[in-house]
């Protein structure tokens, strides 16, 4: 999506990574004692994920996705985290399908932007605000105050970054 604050900018050039078959991906996942596969980005829905999710589910895994919603949905998902970005308009279908809306807060105007998206999601959708990492010292206190005043929202933190885990 080209976000300046993207965690995985090295994902933007898919050609730099070796291609793997679905069987290779599923086999590597099954080497670990997990029951959950979270597919995230860059933007995973740039690709058709139907075969991958079918095979993961056949091996007994739950499938979750985090997406900006800018591309058509493919795959079979147990949980959809919808995290719209300002750089590319999300598709309308994601508002009703989302289990979770996560908005990255970079500046104060993002609270209004988050509310505009929250007004469109289904009533059971969980609402999260997450500070952009490089601005978390400034934005996290504002998010905390906002959530205190707007308890329908929860706070999402990138705990791996607080622990220095890449």
Number of H- or I-type helical stretches: 6
Largest sheet: 6 strands, parallel
Q: Work out the number of β strands.
A: 6
Identify the CATH homologous superfamily of the largest domain. Answer: Aldolase class I
Rg calc: 17 Å
What's the domain count?
2
Question: What string gives the helices and strands in order?
Answer: HEHEEHEHEHEH
- Mean pLDDT across the residues is 91
Q: What structural class results from the helix and strand content?
A: alpha/beta
Shape, per Cα inertia axes? globular
CATH class of the largest domain: Alpha Beta
- CATH topology label of the largest domain: TIM Barrel
Return the CATH architecture of the largest domain. Alpha-Beta Barrel
Strand content: 15-25%
Instruction: Give the termini separation.
Output: 20 Å
Low-confidence stretches: none
Task: Estimate the helix proportion, in percent.
Answer: 25-40%
Strand order of the largest sheet: 1-2-3-4-5-6
